[in-house]
Amino acid sequence: MKRFLGYAATFIVLTTSVLIAQTPTKKVVQIPSTNDPFKISRGSTFSASIPTTAGNSAKTNTLSGKAALVRDLGDALDLIEHFHIDGNGTKTPELIKTSITAMLRVLDPHSSYFDSSEYSDLLSDQHSEYFGIGATIANFQKRGRIDTYVTSTFPDSPAFRANLRFGDKIVEVNGTDVSGKSSLYVRNQVRGKKGTIVRMKIQRADSRKFETIVIRRNRVAQPSISDAYVLKPGIGYIDLSSGFNYTTEEELNLALKELRRQRVSSVILDLRDNPGGILEQAVRVAEKFLPSGKTIATQRGRYVIDNRVWKSRNKNPETIPLIVLVNDESASASEVVAGALQDYDRAVIVGEKTFGKGLVQSVIDLPHGSGLTLTTAKYYTPSGRLIQRDYSAGNLYDYYQHNEKYGGVRSKIATKTIGGRTVFAGDGIMPDVLANNDDLTENQIDLLDPIFHFSSDLAAGRIIGFEHYRIYRQRDISKRIGANDFPVKERLLKAFEKHINLESRPKRIKTFTRTDARFVANRIRYNLISAAYGNTIAKQVLIESDSQIEKAILTLPQARNMAKSAARRPIKTSFK
After folding, report:
1. Can you state the angle between helices 66-83 and 92-107, rounded to 10 degrees?
2. In this structure, are 333 and 209 located in the same domain?
């Protein structure tokens, strides 16, 4: 259910991008020396307008290795700029970026080059902030046209104060027409330097009138823990799906303190879709539950200086029973947390096998504001398990899609947890309790767009007989939703079906199954609560019907037994 939002993708933080590597047909083009005889080979086309420089071969002989390759790259760029039909110089930065990226792809899937704009985004993400307006936006289609819509605003953000609301369509940004553009493109137009002005032309969801609003960009907090609340009596839930940033430890301490105040006796820590982030903060999260002296992670690099060991310094660790939820998008630092807690039998890991990213990227500044994340080491769990999947064969598409030929088969290298359970190395973290994700059906994917537009009309008070669902503006409050918050019953579902028949029913959808009806009701309610309270509060709707959450709750007795055993285990117990 964590991927429930993925089909209406929101772009608050730029995350992992996937590049599809293709192997081109090798083609060698030689520019002859001026002293060579002129020859035309079969299939040749040629122009006599490109001059060559005599003595190139002699010059090449004076250079060797890296210097010659760098010279060749410079010469190739010069030739492209001067003679390629489209190479008027405007594409030079793109060519250079592609060249560096191709170099890194030969090495591993995770070393990356960032131009100055991307590098600035990377650094701001790590500091849990960016300069923008604080709105969540997404693409939705209507009558064959895709546009960008506001789905919620952050509390006390510039967008909230400007009264941007659920369903407002973004038409222009600073005079640039963004109709039909991706929400990522729109996001990049909206973001900018702190204190600068962005002018947005929007079409209001309620009146359908066009307005131009002026918003001053400001810092917008991006907490790593988006929500923490009592899921059921005695069961706390912490959503740590956004990655680890500089404020994660502090956020976790506050969340646990508040849950303790509400008398929870067990906790579900949700690391699904957590892409990683700052390792030191992930170590602090694991340390919260592990006693002083216990190894949390080991880093082994090419040089001794890159080798590190992180150990807990916590003399009073939490003893509360713990479930850690993971899926195939839990990566890197989140796998360090899951691996450490699994190795020490301190938490039950529930969900799907994790991504398997155990490579350490060092963030390196380059001149002129660009930067690299360069792989310099590998992560190992306390029992000595390598987290990283094999990436020696296949291509990047296979790697990111978890195809079996690209490290998808579980490693045969076995180790033991502190309690003697068998676990495996070199292929991510295998959960103790498997629980599959709720993938959407084709029908449900097709329904997402009409559900959004119906919800927008409903929140605007345009659905006859349901005017009481109208939401005048998003409220800036923290709330635990209940059954009486925007209930969706049979009569409203019939209104939805009538609505899409008038608007144009998706071609593949002939009738609703009972499962589809539950999905539609859940999604409409999610959208209405997003409109009223924001996306963070609305995610509680999805959690209520999440099968992996249900599995985690059923596994709590096992977590309680594990917590008791961990509390009784001598501190000096070591791995066998």
Report:
1. 150
2. no
